[in-house]
């Protein structure tokens, strides 16, 4: 939302300003301004303590300065359009003070903002251009393997995802799951099912994506999405992640002298900068959702400080004014997903969604879908009530085989740092149908939710919720719940949850949990719960697997209704894979399991092993030089292999990812190009990042003449053949060359004439040798 607080008057500094180095009032006579002589002047103008950079015409007359209306308009004075062309005595302008420096031919004018018409200065969040993204040819295979054994059955399951990408060809991907199993030691059986296959192109500059293959229909808050095989084309804001799509709170004010402005959102500084004379506006992107409080702190050029508090409300559910979001989908509905590989309905369907920000406070929505027997269309809107929250409404109408129906919805949400409240009700009437109705469950007759919560630093977090769901020709299900949680000292916490079926007093559940953070990353959890007539108590001791890699484990014991069970699990995360394994007992049944996941990447003619890759990645090349340390966002990420390559994952797609090599750990005989580069890969693909690292034959040469004396300072050295590198002789006859060959000849030009030196480069790995003294033999005269 955009909210401009009426703080202009609060920020207006009216009246007199402190004295400057100039006299604030022009003298009636004397060396300043003459009383009887009219003199034209061209003066450098300073307005309200700020240099304008303008030299404008004035006239000294009758002991004062006069200016033409056009001159005053150039300075920002608001004059009526029919202002006479006669000169204006600046002393007659209310509240205006002038200081004329005769020697420097400058004039300082201090004027109230009420007399000025200045353009507002925009501060804060600015549009950041999306960096061009790229990918390089390659293949990616993600895998997840799982095996389980118990007293009744054995099974093994594998999930595979294959992606192919490169250049402007988009990303081709397919995934499948393969299972094999047996019961009671019988024969093994199995099947393989294809999940999703698609080809996706993204058009970054237009923020649109085209998908051919398995996809899904758009999904507004009041519609239902379905899987289908076909074509989907629509807006994709993720292609420009630096662009803000929701309205930003705007804070405005005015200053009569150059000032420093700071903006705080809920006590956290969001912006600090300088603002020139006149009105200003600050766009800020607060990291909160809901109501908040902003504080503007203005410190002017004279040190005076003013503070203005401004409430606001921010929500990501609205679109900025003029921004639209849309999608169009056509194809066949996917049936039996996860069970059969190629099960599609034989009737084509289509769906379209559209959202647009009419203003920063109103976003409208529209949806249409149908087939040869179904027509469904609806509209909706989200409206910001300012600090009072956001209200949403929707209405849809359908017709199928001559039967019509309607769906209506209403929602409201308000939240701040301590309180939250939301309600959502959606009901259907008649025979309302959508695409999902023909291939699954029909829309609920009644779907309602409500939530109220409160967060207190001393008492913890409280909340109550209500849910109601009534399917067609089924009983009404209504549930209420309450929760409480509180952290004590940051190391231990308590939580309580209660759920009640409002139509069945015997259908209720309780949960009480205790958590304690121990040393070395260990966590102890103790809980008790009652579900219906069943009571269960459990204790769980865990050491999480470190995010940077290493081992973790878990021990768990349960007891309830005379049944005791437990679990022991061990996990490991490495650079190339993640492994889990465990042994447990439940209900008298002992079981064991193991899993492993990771990925294989083919890029730059090499195969890399890595953890599972869900998003983007990069292959760093150091021009064939191995052992080069690489950093991601200034954090060490790995070292290039013997071919000078390193797979870096994960990266953020469509965003700048700072990659760097560390030259401090490289041998001295290396020549470097850039040591930092931004990688911007496309989503679900990899890009190649190449650093120029070259191993050179360099040496510090000590040169002398036939008498054993160092060659003169400034003598010119040039290699003969090869690179023909040139250099100058320094002190003590020393010179440095870094393009040497195995056998070298160089010519030296001195004040005494020319001479030559022949020498071999020694085999000294990873070092710059000091060679010499080398005697320079004079060239024979022809």
Automatic annotation (TrEMBL):
Residue ranges annotated for the PapC-like C-terminal domain, each copy included: 700-762
Annotated organism of origin: Luteimonas cucumeris
One annotated GO biological process: pilus assembly
Signal peptide: 1-23
Cellular component GO terms held in the UniProt record: cell outer membrane
PANTHER family: OUTER MEMBRANE USHER PROTEIN, SLR0019 PROTEIN
Pfam families assigned to the protein according to its UniProt record, in alphabetical order: PapC_C, Usher
Domain of life assignment: Bacteria
One example GO MF annotation: fimbrial usher porin activity
Keyword set, alphabetical order: Signal
Name of the protein this chain belongs to: Outer membrane usher protein
């Amino acid at each position: 939302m955009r909210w401009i607080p009426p703080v202009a008057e609060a920020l207006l500094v009216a009246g007199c300003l402190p004295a400057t180095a100039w006299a604030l009032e022009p003298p009636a006579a004397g060396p300043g301004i003459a009383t009887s002589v009219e003199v034209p002047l061209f003066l450098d103008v300073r307005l309200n303590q700020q240099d304008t950079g303008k030299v404008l015409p004035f006239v000294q007359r009758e002991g004062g300065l006069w200016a033409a209306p056009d001159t005053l308009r150039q300075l920002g004075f608001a004059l009526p359009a029919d202002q006479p062309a006669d000169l204006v005595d600046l002393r007659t302008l209310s509240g205006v003070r002038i200081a004329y420096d005769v020697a420097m031919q400058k004039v300082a004018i201090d004027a109230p903002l009420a007399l000025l018409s200045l353009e507002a200065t925009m501060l804060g969040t600015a549009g950041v251009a999306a960096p061009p993204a790229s990918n390089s040819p390659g293949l990616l295979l993600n895998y997840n393997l799982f095996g389980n054994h118990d007293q009744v059955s054995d099974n093994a399951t594998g999930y595979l995802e294959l992606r192919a990408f490169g250049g402007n060809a988009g990303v081709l991907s397919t995934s499948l799951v393969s299972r094999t199993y047996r019961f009671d030691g019988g024969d093994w059986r199995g099947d393989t099912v294809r999940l999703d296959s698609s080809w996706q192109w993204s058009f970054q500059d237009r923020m649109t994506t085209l998908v051919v293959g398995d996809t899904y229909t758009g999904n507004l808050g009041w519609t239902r999405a379905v899987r289908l095989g076909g074509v989907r084309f629509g807006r994709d804001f993720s292609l420009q992640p630096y662009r803000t799509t929701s309205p930003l709170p705007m804070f405005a004010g005015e200053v009569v002298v150059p000032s420093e402005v700071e903006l705080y959102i809920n006590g956290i500084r969001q912006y600090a900068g300088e603002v020139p004379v006149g009105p200003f506006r600050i766009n800020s992107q607060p990291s909160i959702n809901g109501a908040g409080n902003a504080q503007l702190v203005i410190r002017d050029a004279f040190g005076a400080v003013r503070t203005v508090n401004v409430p606001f409300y921010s929500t990501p559910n609205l679109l900025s004014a003029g921004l639209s979001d849309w999608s169009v989908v056509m194809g066949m509905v996917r049936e039996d997903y996860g069970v059969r590989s190629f099960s599609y309905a034989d009737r084509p369907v289509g769906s379209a969604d559209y959202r647009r920000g009419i203003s920063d406070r109103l976003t409208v929505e529209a949806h249409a879908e149908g087939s040869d027997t179904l027509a469904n269309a609806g509209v909706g809107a989200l409206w910001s009530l300012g600090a009072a929250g956001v209200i949403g409404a929707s209405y849809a109408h359908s017709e199928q085989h001559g039967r019509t129906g309607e769906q209506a919805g209403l929602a409201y949400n308000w939240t701040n740092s301590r309180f939250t409240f939301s309600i959502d009700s959606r009901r259907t009437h008649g025979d309302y149908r959508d695409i999902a109705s023909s291939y699954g469950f029909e829309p609920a007759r009644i779907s309602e939710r409500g939530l109220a919560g409160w967060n207190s630093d001393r008492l913890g977090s409280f909340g109550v919720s209500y849910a109601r769901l009534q399917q067609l020709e089924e009983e009404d299900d209504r549930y209420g719940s309450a929760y409480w949680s509180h952290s004590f000292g940051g190391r231990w916490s308590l939580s309580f949850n209660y759920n009640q079926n409002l139509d069945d007093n015997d259908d209720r559940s309780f949960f009480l949990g205790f958590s304690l953070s121990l040393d070395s990353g260990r966590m102890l959890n103790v809980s008790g719960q009652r579900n219906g007539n069943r009571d269960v108590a459990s204790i769980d001791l865990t050491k999480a697997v470190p995010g940077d890699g290493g081992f973790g484990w878990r021990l768990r014991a349960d007891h309830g209704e005379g049944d005791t069970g437990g679990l022991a699990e061990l996990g490991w995360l490495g650079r190339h894979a993640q492994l889990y394994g465990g042994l447990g007992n439940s209900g008298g049944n002992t079981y064991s399991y193991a899993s492993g996941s990771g990925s294989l990447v083919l890029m730059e003619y090499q195969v890399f092993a890595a953890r599972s890759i869900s998003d983007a990645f990069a292959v760093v090349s150091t021009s064939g030089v191995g052992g080069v340390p690489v950093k991601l966002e200034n954090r060490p990420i790995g070292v290039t292999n013997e071919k000078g390559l390193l797979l870096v994952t994960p990266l953020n797609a469509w965003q700048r990812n700072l990659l760097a090599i560390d030259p401090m750990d490289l041998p001295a005989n290396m020549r470097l190009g850039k040591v930092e580069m931004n990688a911007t890969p496309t989503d679900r693909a990899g890009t190649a990042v190449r650093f120029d690292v070259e191993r050179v034959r360099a040496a510090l040469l000590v040169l002398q003449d036939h008498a054993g004396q160092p060659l003169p300072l400034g003598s010119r050295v040039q290699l003969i053949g090869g690179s023909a590198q040139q250099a100058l002789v320094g002190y003590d006859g020393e010179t440095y060359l870094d393009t040497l060959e195995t056998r070298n000849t160089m010519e030296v030009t001195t004040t005494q004439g020319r001479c030559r030196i022949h020498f071999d480069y020694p085999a000294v790995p990873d070092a710059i040798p000091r060679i010499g003294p080398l005697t320079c033999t004079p060239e024979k005269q022809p």
